[in-house]
Amino acid sequence: MAHKTDIEIAREAKKKPIQEIGAKLGIPAEHLLPFGHDKAKVSDAFIKSLSDRPDGKLILVTAINPTPAGEGKTTTTVGLGDGLNAIGKKAAICIREASLGPCFGMKGGAAGGGYAQVVPMEDMNLHFTGDFHAITSAHNLLSAMIDNHIYWGNELGIDQRRVTWRRVMDMNDRALRQIVTSLGGVANGFPAEGGFDITVASEVMAILCLATDLKDLQRRLGDIIVAYRRDRSPVYARDLKADGAMTVLLAQAMQPNLVQTLENNPAFVHGGPFANIAHGCNSVIATRTALKLADYVVTEAGFGADLGAEKFMNIKCRKAGLAPDAVVIVATVRALKMNGGVARADLGAENVAAVRKGCANLGRHIENVKQFGVPAVVAINHFVTDTEAEIEAVKAYVAEQGSEAILCTHWANGSAGIADLARRVVELAESGAAQFAPLYPDDMPLFEKIETIAKRIYRADEVLADKKIRDQLRAWEEAGYGNLPICMAKTQYSFSTDPNLRGAPTGHSVPVREVRLSAGAGFVVVICGEIMTMPGLPRHPAAETIRFNEEGFVEGLF
Amino acid sequence: MAHKTDIEIAREAKKKPIQEIGAKLGIPAEHLLPFGHDKAKVSDAFIKSLSDRPDGKLILVTAINPTPAGEGKTTTTVGLGDGLNAIGKKAAICIREASLGPCFGMKGGAAGGGYAQVVPMEDMNLHFTGDFHAITSAHNLLSAMIDNHIYWGNELGIDQRRVTWRRVMDMNDRALRQIVTSLGGVANGFPAEGGFDITVASEVMAILCLATDLKDLQRRLGDIIVAYRRDRSPVYARDLKADGAMTVLLAQAMQPNLVQTLENNPAFVHGGPFANIAHGCNSVIATRTALKLADYVVTEAGFGADLGAEKFMNIKCRKAGLAPDAVVIVATVRALKMNGGVARADLGAENVAAVRKGCANLGRHIENVKQFGVPAVVAINHFVTDTEAEIEAVKAYVAEQGSEAILCTHWANGSAGIADLARRVVELAESGAAQFAPLYPDDMPLFEKIETIAKRIYRADEVLADKKIRDQLRAWEEAGYGNLPICMAKTQYSFSTDPNLRGAPTGHSVPVREVRLSAGAGFVVVICGEIMTMPGLPRHPAAETIRFNEEGFVEGLF
């Protein structure tokens, strides 16, 4: 029998009205702002009314370093949410929103896969509830206000060569990466260099995902550094009086979006910051709201645990006062084989030795997660070509590390295939074993924070940074930004900064190319290697094949 | 007693759930896609199911040439809709959506005013249901696909110097009017000149507003000319295979938005093309849907009747097969005084002579409307400073023209203040007097069409156009575009192309500066004078004062 595709399964979903999904969490219909019949935003007033309630348990789903073989982190997040509900727990999941632009380059992403998906898939790949459009508008309003301020006399003394605030668009458009603006004469302003990033790379996105409420949102927006003066003093968005209007533009986008899984369980899909130059987690407000409404909240972080889980713990949990109760590390036999040196073309053949070798990558992530004081369990996301011996090799290896690996077949079987993991997660979370603490204290000097992550998480020998970068970090410390956490931007494919170095490398160095201050979001971005903030379209973009077919279904988007 | 502001009145509105508003028109709740509790889109399936129903009567509200004194065209449209409902008719109104960008420059617009408004006002000035964001995305996807095609080898042989498709953003940003893109080396493409227009100026906006369904939308999007080759042959969006993906991006935006008036009557607010380089009317699909659901549909067109009504008749009605049954021409005593030569500062003083002089402007619009075979009535939109003698002067003048002017106080009194006009509109519409015909036939040569509008509507002596422009028009005729209607882009402040020439000028010339082919929208744009397609922000943009106040209300937007 031919397998159904993700989209075929999604289209067969028996969706319930979103009010019924909300009712599962006790959200009254009048506090759900509907977007169609299958999406809704939770009202600000209702969220405020929850503040005295106790929090449920927070479960983070993370993964080994990603490979082209695929790990299925979101699929496992969705599956585990369904699994917890299936064993009688009141559970909700919290994941990120998809970016529209990239869907027209490569194929768009499903939220999960197989029988562990969130729906409506089309909407989630397109405009959804308009959050990213609101972020684009707020970001570009600030850009326009900067140039407008200079145009009308530049009272703030902005050095136009030192405007750091670019523009954004939710589109893969390489032609906009580097541009010259304000050509054409006096009426159009002063010619200047500029450029566009993709919307998910906007600091406004990171801010929206870290803000606790509208007041906090406005404060953070005001804190954005948009430019410097000739004397190098910063100019803030607040100086331009842009923070109020940006907040108004973002108010609805701040409200978490509720949708459902294929098994009609609640899923909050909200926010989607880059996982390199930003922290790569769904919004704090969605996670917090879910914790007030559900006994178990399953969430995920971007990329592998070296980037995603590290930032989830050191940035999101630290800043939002969250404490995870258990961590699930997702691995697949195929991805472990690739970490063990097998080429993609050879993944079909059984190779227990390669699996065992690749387990070194998994083992280090287990160790790392435990450094944060949180118990970990491994989910083996089953693939049809996995052999019994390969699966046993993973289980045996993980057992040696003092942890447990559980085979999960949620992709094929939905919640029924992930009940064992769900039960183990409940045990871990209820055990009270978690003693969460971030990896470094707030008051550690910035460079030491970078070294701490590089040495304890990446297992590098050293961090390489020239004087200019160290001076910049010290200058920020003197300006009062020394207490911020670090947001590492490096390749997701390796513990090191070399994307080809799979497994569990040691003896490497972490060269810092550039540091950036995201003063509104509240972190220092440390860039190691090339980071692309505006993707391009491929030779044959997916857009060429996206269309409505004769039955009125969207084709080519998935 | 101090008058309440529009926003105060709007906030006191007793809004009904949008399903109740839909029910008034017989739209089942499952065919309303809600956006919150007070906005909804009407489903495609429901619209299709209406095709066999008879149409209601179509009433166009237009106005004299606009002045800084204000005419209240939208206010009268809304008031008349309420008035018709109040006298027992099943009526709906159809107006345009507001553009987000300009709200952050000058104050945002209300939809109507006083006790004749459409709500929710905040949403309508911000993201509303996301239609304009969808248009921005679809437009810029096409832009990215053009540059991407050139980047990957330029198989279609696009002459990069002749790319006519710019980019758009819904923001007032003068710095983006003229830019150079693709700087920074090989990976970013070939440097080129480019620029951004505001979203409402996008041809995609005009297309969405003229398309009859998704198929027609896709066909029109495919017809867009994006560039020319060295041999001057056109390259279409279809050649880039962009039309399918653009249609998918626009599918939801194509569904008309339903909201309500302060008196809880149905209002379709959908689409908002520029009224100079485009046709300035709400969407065909909204108007057609309303005509199937209501016995009376009141709609409006942009600017004064010389631009708005002319395009409504010659472009929208011609192309959509619509036939207006009556026209309301809105005038105010103040605006007539300004047309009669009174300065804005002196509008407070009674000046019957100036009113009578300014009536020449009104008189010509009455004549013009009758040229289309549609009966006209004048609405005097009452202002508190109007004197009895001034109002009588208008009434007497209009009576001399064989028409009738009716005093309306809907701004102060809602539907109760406009019952007389409503009754007269019903008489005119039911009389069967309307014998609508466009002003020129499809097969008239393009230049003759321009002359027809200039001479019969503007009362100019001649149209001035150099050889290059006449050759271009002939080339388009040879390419099969000769049957398109003309979309005039000239100042809205005068019948002539001189904005300072108020009243009813004669003996003037209409100089054509440029012609553009909107092959997808299906009209030839004729530009007479400077047309700004990307506004800038003023010295102190409204954005500086827009914020949430302590009560949680938006301030500064209105």
UniProtKB/TrEMBL annotation, chains A, B:
Major enzyme class: ligase
Pathway assigned to this chain's UniProt record: One-carbon metabolism; tetrahydrofolate interconversion
Binding site for ATP: T67, P68, A69, G70, E71, G72, K73, T74
UniProt entry keywords in alphabetical sequence: ATP-binding, Ligase, Nucleotide-binding, One-carbon metabolism
Reaction it catalyzes: (6S)-5,6,7,8-tetrahydrofolate + formate + ATP = (6R)-10-formyltetrahydrofolate + ADP + phosphate
The protein's name: Formate--tetrahydrofolate ligase
CDD domains, A to Z: FTHFS
